[in-house]
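Our collaborator T.R. sent over the components below with a one-line note: 'Predict the complex.' Nothing else. No constraints on interfaces, no templates requested, no preferences about which chain binds where. So this is a plain run: every listed entity goes in together, and whatever single assembly comes back becomes the starting point for the next discussion.
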Amino acid sequence: MDPSTPSTSSSSPAVVQRAPSRARPASRWPDRIFFGLVTAVGLSVIGLAAAIVAILVYGARYSFRVFGLSFLWGTVWSPTSNPQVFGVMPFVVGTLLTSAIALVIAFPLALGSAIFLTTHAPRWLRGPAGTAIELLAAVPSVIYGLWGIYVIHPYMASTIEPGLKRYLGFTGLFDGTPIGLDVLTASIILAVMIVPTICAISRDTLAAVPQAQKEAALSLGATDWETTRVAMIPYARSGIVGGTMLGLGRAMGETMAVTMVIGNTDRIPTSLLSQGQTIASLIANELLSNSGPLQESAILEAGLILLVIALAVNVAARLLVWRVLKGGGGGIVE
Amino acid sequence: MRPFDRYARRKLLSRIIAVLTGLCVLAVLYPLVSIVYESFVQGGAVLFQAQFLTTVQPLPCSAISCKTVGIGPAVQGTLIVVGLASGISVPVGVLAAIFASEYRARGLGRAISFTADVLTGVPSIIMGAFIYGYFVIYYPQIALSFYTGALALSAIMIPIVVRTTEEALRVVPNSIREAALALGISKWKATLRIVLVASIPGVATGVLLAVMRAAGEAAPLLFTLGYSTLWFQGMNQQGASLPLLIYTFALSEAANQQKVAWGATLFLLILILAVNVVSRLAIHRMRVRMGGV
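Returned assembly:
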């Protein structure tokens, strides 16, 4: 496109006379058109991201005008009262609570599995077991929901929750009736769903630890576990943290499985055995069956809040993971 | 204490950790085993009936009839909506990945692959919500239709296709690009006819994984594709889909509909797990082959 470079196209007779080569270079126009095409399509990916934000902001404007910032800490979600009142706090609490519990359950299991797969497992087992764990991530959310309702829910209601109530009831965490469709069950299903994310990335970053670093620890007489502890985990730490945050992001946005087992009540959960609602399950339950433009707008604003939280967690996580896998991180430096 | 005892203790600790972490793997894999097992037990007899895939879903059991067949419309709807979504997302995703990978020197390429990376973390329900939020304002008559369903699913698929295609393109050795360009082939031809062709196994597996992901998505379809129990009625109408059939029938009170939900689950599960295993093997073999070039 630069006019100062000599044109190689046949449009300029002077150039043709000066370079009467038989193998004339191909015209550059197809290249330019192709470059223009892939650039436009590439930009459309950024456009998609911008459109998601813009449309949610636009959809949320009515709710924002009516409630302003009080939407954020409003604890009442009442489409039936007059006037209607919408506050997103019950769902923010529901989302953060279920994700946090899921993380507490999933993290040790996932990290333990990653350590086993990188250090202790016999070589022939590593590939198949790793693949099997990754397959857990491919199972659709709605199937986890079905499994949650018919397999986990009866077990929670008959065994786990009465047990927790009997032995840990004094903490007040397990007040309420143990019916099995509640915050705790949703958290457990979420934990199952995010384990593969955390495990796969932890395993990849642990496997990215330089061989020399492991051998240095082994040559000092360290056992397998000590090598893992002093030479591998510190090196892979930011990758493990990043993978965990990716899992957290997934837990916060997970919809169908949660919707099917959390009980769907528009109130702040008072214990782990009370029913609740996450932002995602709120959207799933009420966006289509909304009572009017104000509720629709309020739900889209809740969606915007979920998007902001999920994006923040995701961007931070990606940056951490990239740093390790690109070889930038290191335990020694710290 | 003698040093030997201390060493023995450290060895023992290492052994204990090995066992504990092994138990972690078993605990993590239990749900997968349980889901597959329960699907076979609850849905096996249902799925392998004649006409399960070709008849309409049943009403709740009544005195007159009590059927456990029928996910035909849902299979048909899922095929159509996922097919349309693939038609949108595969070209877009592949071209965007070509830009991000082959024109990477420009910072924009990196920005695009980072955006795609971040988009894979956007909750799928948000992808449905923003499509709904747009269409319900500007084109309310097709807010619930195959069009919006396909758009929501392509918003989910595009980032996946971009990421996997980009990775597949990057595995192609630079010497192939250089050889092509040295022969005087123009860049676009070299990219499409040589680099992209060399990476087709990787691109294809990425596309397959994205398709399988879309086929199992229920959340964004709730308010885009909508719900139907009928055979295809037209692109601008609501449609049936496997994930929403599972969702609706799982919450149904009727035992026969719950059975159908399990049958549909088993069908979807076999499809998804098979495609995942096969494409993982393919990716692995391609890496080995490219590494040997």
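Summary for T.R.: Chain A has a mean pLDDT of 85.
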